[in-house]
Amino acid sequence: MSMKLLKNFISSGAFSSAKKADSEKFLQLDHKSLTILFKIDTKHKKKKVKDSRRTGIRCRVGRWIQIRGDNMKLNSIVTKLWLAITALVLMVIGITGLVHTDLMDKIYYQQQANQLISTGHRVADLARTEKNTAMLEAKLDAVSGVMDNNIMIINSNNGIHSSAGMGIESADMLPDLENPYHIPLTENDLEKLSKGETIIYRGRSEFFQTDVLSVAMPVKDATSGARIIMIHAPLKPLAGQLASFKIITFYTAVGGIILATILSLFFSRQVARPLLDMNRVALAMASGDFLRQVKVNTNDEVGLLANSLNTLSVQLQEKLAQLERLDRARREFVANVSHEIKTPLTIMQGFTEALLDNLATDEDERKSYLNNIAEEIKRLRRLVNDILDLNKIEEGRFDFVRDYVDLNSVSASVQQKFRALAEESGIELTFNIDKKTPPVYGSQDMIKQVYFNLIDNAIRHTPAGGKILVTAFPKADQVMVQVKDTGRGIPAEDLPMIWERFYKADKSRTRGQGGTGLGLAIVKRIIETHGGWISVESKPGTGTTFTFILPTGPRKTHR
């Protein structure tokens, strides 16, 4: 269907000005829907990649990044998400690595310093208990050999009383404070030690000509002649052990980064895949294909978006079908109205021209011509009134007053109107209304029109000698009414179509036998407007039964 087609209906002249205005309003209201349904955005056309099996990564802007056969652009959400996660992982691991390394440094050297302090306490105990200098130095050699460090005992004169390890074996060496290489202490250090403080030093020692970790601690009991205990451990083996720890940490971090990069790529592709699927579905919808659906495997926001897109696709498909049905109905409506109007106009034109040409030979023939013209005018008037009433009912613009309606009174009025017509047609018309039937809630005029249309339809389709029975009886809080005839019946394939405008199940009916073709359509709309329903049962050669339900009480909403 297209906008051009609908506009042609309006511009064809078959509509009145009021109908033309209504149709123009319809076109304006549905313009956006039609635009959505039929517009193809050429900007979304993509050039297919000829060989998608190549692998590799190109990092230049605008080039395709190809991983495992799938194409990703640097500005695609897959790449952006992957790079963002990878950058975040790198930053977290980098900061964590720096903090961890620095903390490891401090903890490791603090543990070594504590171990040296513990060794210093044992040496102080040896200095207090061992009076034999040779034995003391032998024990110091044993301790320093196990610990692979240097142990010094500084006497009260600030001289080296004993020393073992790291090639410093001299004893009773007096310190030269101007030349601090004799002992690795300064005046400031000696002052702190005299106050009972423990000194921990890490760095380059000119005394040992290497990097050391040193601990100096005062001896509280100086009766042995010892004043200060100093223990020095070379940093090279300690740094080697620490470097091994750092290498292990580094490789662990690298492995974590590689694993995180792979996982982030997998995760980003998993997140982006439904988005790419949704993009393909959206492009298909833009080209008019509403059968495509996105496979939803999650219940997160992406899954909700996919469900929304699927719902939109279904709704647009239904909208398209609805617009196509509306287009078909409008075309049929225009064709039927044109035919129904053209025939009486042609007849009237023929009789009028005959009168103008004085073809009528006598007064009786002239009156016959005028009666035919009057009948066609009445037919046109009924047709126009039926069309207007049907449109008003469908659009909810048919104003009527609702009240409680006595079906016995309505049935009596209708029976009186159709008695003469039924007798003239040789048909037995009977009304059987249950006295317990309560009043129904609605418009008396519209309910009476339902009776008129159904009984008129039954009389026109029932041959002479047939019967028409109208019954009404209560059913729960509703009233069921039936109009049953013994007429020709309706073929099963025609039953679903009898409610359509201008539809005629009996194609052999002449214009004189038929109505406007809108009676049953009006009946159905009136019943539905009152909150009821109507059905039909028919068998060719046996007859037809129309059954409708009307409520006995008011509804919450009125149309």
Structure, described:
This protein is α+β, with helices and mostly antiparallel strands and 559 residues long. Among the domains are: 131-241, Beta-Lactamase (2-Layer Sandwich), CATH 3.30.450; 400-551, Heat Shock Protein 90 (2-Layer Sandwich). It is built from 11 helices and 14 strands. It has helices at 3-11, 17-38, 77-129, 133-147, 187-194, 235-286, 301-356, 363-395, 407-424, 444-461, 519-529; strands at 64-67, 70-73, 150-155, 160-164, 199-205, 210-218, 226-234, 403-405, 428-433, 440-442, 467-475, 478-485, 533-539, 543-551. The strands form 4 sheets. It has a 5-stranded antiparallel β-sheet with strand order 4-3-7-6-5. Helix 2 runs antiparallel to helix 7. The protein is rod-shaped, with a radius of gyration of 53 Å. The relative contact order is 0.06.
